[in-house]
Give the backbone structure.
Amino acid sequence: MIQFDNVGVRYGMGDEVLKDLSFAIEPGSFQYLTGPSGAGKTSLLRLLFLSLQPTRGLIKVFGHDASSLTHADLPSVRRRIGIVFQDFRLLDHLTLYENVALPLRVRGNEERSYRRDVIDLLKWVGLSERIDAFPTVLSGGEQQRAAVARALIDQPELLLADEPTGNLDPKLARRLLRLFIELNRTGTSVVIATHDLNLMDQFEARRMVLNDGRLQVYD
C-alpha cells in the first residue's frame, strides 16, 4: 500500500528531522507510531498523507511514485486516506452532521445517498444525540470522536490518526480503540500516532518507534 525507501526530511537549512526511513504499510495492517515529543511523528503522518514532500528518497503510495503525482492527482489519492488531526479541524459554522458529511458533499454526492451512512456512523462513535450540535458546544472528547467519524465517512483504505485519544478519558479511549480495531477488521489499514503506552498494551500490533528522526519497527 505504501513504501518508503531511504526517505529523509529537513525544513529549510536545518538538520534532517527524519532520516533514512525505509518501511512498508501493508493492506489490512494495524500499527502504532510512537516516540518522544519532537521525534517527527507528525512529519511522518504528513508524508503519509502527501501533504509534505520528502527532501530525499522515494515514497510509493498505492503503486504511484508520490513525486510524480500532479496537483490534480492528489485529491483522488487522498480520498483513499482518512486522517484525524490533533486539532480536529471541525468547522464551527457547520453542525456535527454537516461536518461529518462534508467530504461527501464536497465531492458532489446527493444527501439522500449518504444521510443514513452519516447518521449510522455518528451512532457508532456515540454521538447520535449530538447530530445537530455545533462544534463550539461539544466537549473535547466529542470533537475528537466527530473528527474520527469525518475521517471514516469516505471508507478510506488507510486511516491515519494523530493522538486520537489525547482528549479522552480511559473509558472513551478504549471505546475508540475498539472502533479502530473493528475498522481494521473490515480491511482498512490503521496507523495510530500515540504516546499512550497503556492504550498500546490493550491491543497487540506492530510498533513503529521514532527516536531522533530514525525509525525502528517492531512486528
Residues 1 and 17 are 24 Å apart (CA to CA). The mean pLDDT is 90. The longest strand covers residues 16-25. The helical segments are 41-48, 74-78, 96-106, 111-124, 140-152, 170-185, 197-202.
